[in-house]
Design a protein that fits this description.
The chain is of the alpha/beta class and 241 residues long. It is built from eight helices and nine strands.
């Protein structure tokens, strides 16, 4: 039986975590959920613990000591998924900016022969973003253009955080060497998969900005993405990636 795990990193997501978990479990395809919580002071972890009583064999929780960045949360989740022998591992936000229904489309696409990674892309068929200010849309869109130009990497949405990986991809990426934590983490993971020869497919999604909670975006995350791309390119050139 195919085992599929959705990793949802959280920090102060009490307003949405229960709804997103229930939405995943109501899908006609079976998914398990791993919440990686960075010791949220708003009680997100405690709420997930209560939900585990209702979904004891589907919902899992890993609580880290402190807020340590999106990238490290996903790395923690990837390692947990590999230890527990999941075949398909997903990244998804807790705030409904990613539609849980699209999990089915991502997995069906990843089941295609010779497909290793499927990206839920905001830009593969135009610009499919709802509720973002124009400045944010332009920044995100041109970040992916920048990645293609600098790295020769033909992915339209390099910073997407809605992804399905086959287990074999994560098994062959040295997760301990992944350096970045924000936008650049998403770029680095896709680029590492590309460098090792993984077949990457993009499918269109509609991204809807959060209506509850606070964005985790910061100037430091943006700077990491800009300079991280150059760093990745240099490390690839010197074969130190």
């Amino acid at each position: 039986m195919t085992k599929s795990l959705v990793i949802i990193p959280t920090y102060n997501e009490k307003q949405t975590i229960e709804r997103i978990v229930r939405a995943v479990f109501q899908l006609p395809m079976v998914f398990h959920v791993l919440v990686v919580d960075d010791n949220s002071p708003d009680g997100t972890g405690e709420l997930v613990q209560d939900l585990q009583k209702e979904f004891p064999n589907q919902l899992f929780l890993e609580v880290r000591k402190a807020k340590s960045g999106l990238g490290t949360a996903y790395i923690h989740g990837f390692k947990w998924a590999l230890q527990n022998q999941y075949d398909f591992i997903f990244e998804m936000d807790a705030d409904f900016s990613h539609n849980p229904l699209d999990l089915i489309r991502l997995q069906e696409a990843c089941l295609q022969p010779n497909t290793d990674v499927v990206i839920g892309s905001r830009y593969i068929s135009g610009v499919n973003v709802v509720n973002w200010p124009l400045s944010r849309v332009l920044m995100s869109y041109f970040a992916s253009v920048y990645v293609r130009l600098v790295m020769g990497f033909k992915v339209h949405d390099a910073t997407s955080g809605f992804i399905c990986y086959r287990k074999r991809v994560l098994e062959h990426i040295n997760l301990d060497k992944v350096k970045f934590v924000g936008y650049a983490f998403q770029i680095e993971m896709k680029y590492r998969a590309h460098v090792m020869g993984s077949q990457i497919l993009e499918i269109p999604i509609i991204f809807t900005d959060r209506t509850q909670g606070e964005s985790k975006m910061s100037n430091a995350i943006i700077s990491e993405a800009i300079f991280g791309v150059i760093s990745l390119r240099i490390r690839k050139f010197f074969r130190t990636l």
